[in-house]
Amino acid sequence: MTELLILLAVSLVVSAVGWKYFIYFFSLGYGYGVAALAVAMAAMFHGSLCAATVTMLVLLFLFGMRLGTFLFVRERKSAAYNKILHDPSLKQKKPVSVIITVWLFCAVLYVAQVSPVAFRLMNCEAGVAVSDLWVWIGAAVVLCGILLESFSDAQKSAAKKRNPKRFVDTGLFRIVRCPNYLGEVVIWTGVLLSGIGAGLVWWQWLIAAIGWIGIVYVMFSGARRLELRQNEVYGNDPDYQAYVKKTPILLPFLPIYSVTKYKWLQA
């Protein structure tokens, strides 16, 4: 448990950027927090690393650094995103109790998300017999998720440069309306899969499952916020109406075209 507390401390330090601006708990604190946790695990368990776990840690580091840097640059360069980010409702001063609660929630969630990798390393260090097969499988899934998220972000940025006033329905956005969020789900599914064959006990699987369920919930919540915002901006556009009626919002091949009515997704 000492190792988890150290990882939690790292997560708290990095995600504390949210004290400067509340939304950073979920953006910069998330991306750079995951990258920092990958570095921390590499340092803490350097004696138990193998090619498979090094690969997974490198992928998590690259994912976190790319996402954090992308969000930072987008905030600086995108006028449309800046308008959303600096909405007056987001600038309202939050009670200290709310800030502390969100800070702790985010820090714990980020540790829970990477916990399958941490538990594998902890168990390996303790002499538990582990198999590397599912780490390689998980790493392959994570890589697919990173590529999906990265290409989605790039395609959306390019499309918005061409026509800032039109919704994006090209490239990966033909498959689902939030392919970047789908990429996140794929990434963390890969991390969860990497826990198979690692000798995890029930409470370790419980923490790992909480991390996976938590980030999936956050992604659906983000998709709902985006849908509500796009409905306000493009709701009267016949092309947009046709697009949302035929394109699933987050998961391909599942006919879930809207989540606005699910108020329990509000986070």
Outline the fold blueprint.
Blueprint (H helix, E strand, L loop, with lengths): L1 H14 L12 H17 L6 H27 L1 H7 L2 H4 L4 H30 L7 H30 L16 H15 L8 H33 L3 H9 L21
Helix pairs in contact: 1-2, 1-6, 2-3, 2-6, 3-4, 3-7, 6-8, 6-9, 7-8, 8-9
Helix content: 55-70%
Give Rg in angstroms.
19 Å
Number of strands: 0
Content of β-strand: under 5%
**Largest β-sheet summary:** none
Termini separation: 29 Å
Shape: globular
Can you give the mean pLDDT? 91
- Tally of separate helices: 10
What structural category arises from helix and sheet content? Answer: mainly alpha
SSE sequence, one letter per element: HHHHHHHHHH
Unreliable spans are none
Structure description:
With 267 residues, this protein is mostly helical. It contains 10 helices and no strands. It is globular.
Summarize the structure.
The mean pLDDT is 91. The protein has helices at residues 2-15, 28-44, 51-77, 79-85, 88-91, 96-125, 133-162, 179-193, 202-234, 238-246. It contains ten helices and no strands.
